[in-house]
Amino acid sequence: MSENGKESTWVNHPPRVKLQDWNLPSVSPIFQAAKFSVDSLQGWNERLAKARESGEEVFLYSRISNPTVRELELLLSKLQGSEDTLALGSGMAAISATLIALLSPGDELILFRESYQPSRTIARTLLSRFGIRHRFFSISRLDECEAALQSPLPNGGKRLIFFEGITNPVCRVADVGRLTALAQKINAMTLLDGTFTGVHQLRETQVDLILHSLTKYASGHGDVTAGAVLGSKVLIDKIRETAILLGATLDPHAAFLIMRGLKTYPLRYTAQSKSAERVARFLESHVGVSQVFYPGLEKDPGHLLARTQLNEMGGMLAIELKNQSAEEFVSRLKLFSFTVSLGATESLATPVLPLYGCDLSESEKRESSIHEKVVRLSIGLEDTEDLIADLAQALGTS
Ligand SMILES: Cc1ncc(COP(=O)(O)O)c(C=O)c1O
Questions:
Q1: How many of the other CB atoms lie within 10 Å of CB of 98?
Q2: β-pairing, 348-351 with 227-231?
Q3: Ligand 1 cavity residues, CB under 6 Å
Q4: Which whole number is the average pLDDT over 1-9?
Q5: Residue 254 shares a structural domain with residue 314
Q6: For 209, 318, 340, 379, which has the most beta carbons within 10 A of its beta carbon?
Q7: Which is it for strands 159-164 and 108-112: parallel, antiparallel or unpaired?
Q8: Considering the entire predicted model, what is its pTM?
Q9: Residue nearest to atom 14 of ligand 1 (CA)
Q10: What's 375's domain CATH number?
């Protein structure tokens, strides 16, 4: 470019600082760029093929891939012990891109009534429109699921079993070993939503894919939405192709914030798990609470299973109130914010029925414990005694 160019021309071509391999910043920079230029288009295809063969990353357009987002993907693969990872703009983007990529008309999605409500909705609405069937079971009654899936689908249709490690909102524990054994027997794929269990647990399972809403514990500060799906390179490549076409891309700045959040993730997850257990023990012994749903409690039906599958039980729990509605109780809380989402540093309280149960029949609501007296709590990093005092006053004992 000419030295005498006009300002409007040279601001588009700022001088570049070239970093040496031996003199890198201690924190990776954010590659906040939509596109990456190449010096020449000549031989581009051969260069691309060569780079891919040697495992080097090549970047052209950030909807397709971006160095900051790729660093996050590599980090998540390490944490969860998977061959590859695809990061996307939200947990729902991870769910929808995965299901759209892997299912075709005539295939069947197997889901559980206790799961995150938008996961049920995607089956009922979007996937149904494209001829993908679905069936719901209870995560607490896998024998019914096993019995119903013995017969193959017509015309060679495939099945995909989609379940949560710990379910949102009322913390039922999935028997991961039993579900993967069933899947192997009937030649189905498995997709595990690990949002509640975090990005460091359930590594040793035989599931084909694990996904997470990174909006929650991974980023941890409630300032970003993101999701990821992890598994073999072959499967992730397939989902990536669909995600690129859907434009379900994660922004590099969001990827940077998640990597920053991940630096404190193990500490936060452990502290939140410990605090949640103390809160659960307090609530368990309170007269105003008829049931506590927390797999860390010995009385919880999922306790033994959780002990074999998980090292930490997480910061999520739910309670069934004896004498007041979920909405009354939540409105009395002072330290817990009344909102959706979870896994951030602040504690949150959510009545489960209006937010997660509207699509269920009356009997399904009762069976899944998603009803008007149940509140989901996400335990943050406040002092545990302060949280207990707040819950006590909202229950009417102080
Ligand atoms: C279990 C579970 N899966 C998926 C999602 C969707 O994640 P996002 O809100 O990042 O789209 C959520 C959100 O709450 C969730 O709880």
A1: 27
A2: unpaired
A3: 90-92, 116, 164, 168, 193, 195, 213, 215, 225, 227, 341
A4: 73
A5: no
A6: 379
A7: parallel
A8: 0.95
A9: 341
A10: 3.90.1150.10
